[in-house]
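Entry type: protein chain
Record version: 2
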Amino acid sequence: MTVADALLLALGAVAVGSGALVVTSAQIVRAGLYLVVSLGAVAGLYLVLGAELVAWVQVLVYVGAVVVLLLFAVMLTRAPIGPSDDLDRPAWPALVVGGGVGLGLAALFADAFRWSIYPLPTPGTTDRMGAEIFGTWVLPFEVLSILLLAALVGAIVLSRPDIGAPKDAPDGVTAQKDGKTAPKDGVTAPKDDVGAKEGEA
């Protein structure tokens, strides 16, 4: 076994293990941190395979942008950070199904590539990859940028406080400002009990 093979096995184990912790963790912030470890291990796999550009794109886009965006979205939407009762249920059925699918795929790939020898393709260059992205694949690239923009706009909208009258507000009340209800135009706001009693006296 060469050093490259050992690195591939180690990084693959880290990626799979941290990926399993992502879906089994009861705290969403810890799940996000485990996702960072998993994506970083995948970037390491790309480095070992000689795809340096793809590895750095993996780090910059997924580890440095997508995971940070997910964590900020969780914080801005005020999602529960502690353990969730919905995630603490027994997961033995999911573990059995996931383990069976994993073993089946491993056996399938091991049998398919056991006696097959495939010639390695010519290593690509950064110039060629850039020409393919902004030439052949420019439309999917722009669609992906629009999708990311929509995600940012959605995060901003979800993080804004409620604007307008609440559903249970009485007629004539339109909004809340500084903890006080603002009356609708043409409607007089009711006085509090203390002010009413002082006026009667």
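Comment: The chain has three domains: 1-118, 125-160, 165-201.
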